[in-house]
Write a structure and sequence with these properties.
The chain is an all-alpha fold. Helix content is 83%, strand content 0%.
């Protein structure tokens, strides 16, 4: 992707705005996919190791309950900061040097401030939030230790995610991958040392995670400081520009709220699952790690679509925007077909990586076979929301997500789950809401959105 760097300096061409569409999407997609794979491995190492060396209570704490809360709090900021990625990709595609600089330094300053705020909220409010979710008593102390230590490293976590977002916005999806590989293996080595060798349990897993996050933050910030391109980071210039922050928040706030809506609905579902007992909570956690293979693929494609659309929209290439959306939709169907076949036949053995408890493995495998065929119903949401986000159209998608995802799931938990009080009954609300929300996105995109109506370059 080095040719993308030269584009805004006047040397060479920007292949995202000029190259063969399907090739550019795949060139950008695969580094993100591999990066997401290592992110998944990074996140699941704790669950795998504590599940085997500590027990199913620790697995339920690290892999399920705490993960849902972390996604709720950190996910809001990550969604909020996605506004910076969209802004930077548009300015970079339009070769607007000063605005790229303002956006980069404001984004980094915002990450530091946001990390400090989230650290305080996470540490102080963790017990109350875990109790609100009906966390089983034999899981509570494990979960409390893990989540409080995890939030100590929030600043490093947000700096890495923001720095990676900046690199992806300008078309470089490889450096974030390299940094993540280093940190992933660091995390695994520290997990084995602190949990398996020293017997520190979930405390060791949490320490391994935050130390790895700090390393990732240093690597990505160092990369931004060393570049000579227009997105170069200068520590002396790190400050919040009010005008730029408002632009970032205007685009990122809906994405942040969208993330919160997903997470709130997942918290509510997790609370319902917690009432089914420790075996079901552990099985839900194990299933969540295995189906993460699908989510890492589709989310990587969504990131690729957003960057592709953002840069081409910034360059005035509306024709390429529409072609990119169609190509991405086709790729998503092909990739999901392959992933579903793999998970259907190979998912059950993967459960053994997380637990040796036979009852937990059987429950999680049954749930996996129930859910895999429904993954196709989510694709329109990812592709269309990513495309709309790339042009800055985020508010209506936020409303669609709020009603179609969060609202319907809450109604299902309140009125449906009491009559189907099983793990599959809790999981059913996912495909139900994907179908409803996909239909809403298709109607909005093709009939009402400015992007859907716009067929020519601006």
């Amino acid at each position: 992707m080095s040719e993308h760097v030269g584009a805004c300096k006047g040397s060479g061409s920007n292949q995202i705005t000029e190259g063969v569409i399907w090739k550019q999407l795949l060139f950008f997609f695969f580094p993100i996919l591999f990066g997401t794979f290592f992110q998944q491995l990074y996140n699941t190492a704790d669950a795998m190791i504590v599940g085997h060396f500590v027990g199913k209570q620790a697995l339920a704490a690290v892999g399920g309950t705490t993960g849902t809360l972390i996604n709720l709090l950190v996910g809001f900021f990550t969604g909020l900061s996605s506004g910076a990625t969209v802004i930077i990709s548009q300015y970079y595609g339009g070769r607007k040097r000063d605005k790229v600089q303002w956006a980069v330094h404001t984004s980094v300053a915002f990450s530091i401030l946001g990390g400090l705020v989230l650290m305080g909220i996470g540490i102080i409010g963790s017990r109350w939030m875990l109790e609100l979710m009906n966390t089983p008593s034999d899981v509570m102390e494990h979960a409390l230790i893990y989540i409080r230590i995890y939030f100590l490293g929030t600043v490093g976590n947000l700096l890495y995610n923001m720095g990676s977002g900046i690199l992806r916005a300008i078309g470089d999806s490889r450096k974030p991958l390299y940094f993540l590989i280093v940190c992933c293996f660091t995390n695994i080595i520290l997990d084995l040392l602190l949990v398996a060798a020293l017997g520190l349990g979930v405390l060791g897993a949490a320490l391994a995670t935050i130390l790895s996050q700090m390393i990732s933050a240093v690597l990505v910030m160092g990369s931004l400081m060393r570049t000579q391109d227009i997105y170069r980071l200068d520590l002396s210039k790190i400050r919040i520009d009010g005008i730029m922050l408002r632009r970032i928040v205007r685009i990122g706030f809906p994405a942040g709220m969208q993330s919160v809506m997903y997470s709130v609905s997942n918290v509510i579902i997790q609370a319902g699952v917690n009432g089914l007992g420790t075996d079901n909570v552990a099985a839900w956690a194990a299933y969540g790690k295995v189906d993460g293979l699908f989510w890492m693929m589709v989310n990587a494609l969504g990131i690729s679509v957003t960057t592709f659309v953002g840069q081409n929209y910034g360059a005035g290439r509306i024709d390429r925007v529409h072609k990119g959306v169609r190509v991405s939709a086709g790729l998503s169907v092909i990739m999901t077909s392959i992933m579903c076949v793999f998970l259907w036949f190979g998912g059950s053995p993967l459960m053994s990586l997380f637990t040796s408890d036979e009852a937990v493995r059987q429950i999680s495998s049954s749930l996996l076979h129930f859910m895999v065929p429904t993954f196709f119903t989510y694709l329109a949401i990812e592709i269309l929301s990513g495309s709309l986000r790339g042009v800055g159209d985020c508010w209506i998608p936020m409303v669609i997500t709020g009603l179609g995802i969060c609202g319907v799931r809450i109604l299902w938990v309140i009125f449906g789950l009491p009559h189907y009080h099983t793990l599959k009954g809790a999981a059913f609300c996912y495909p139900l809401t994907w179908v409803i929300t996909s239909i809403a996105f298709l109607i909005y995109y093709f009939r009402f959105s400015a992007l859907g109506k716009r067929k020519t370059a601006r």
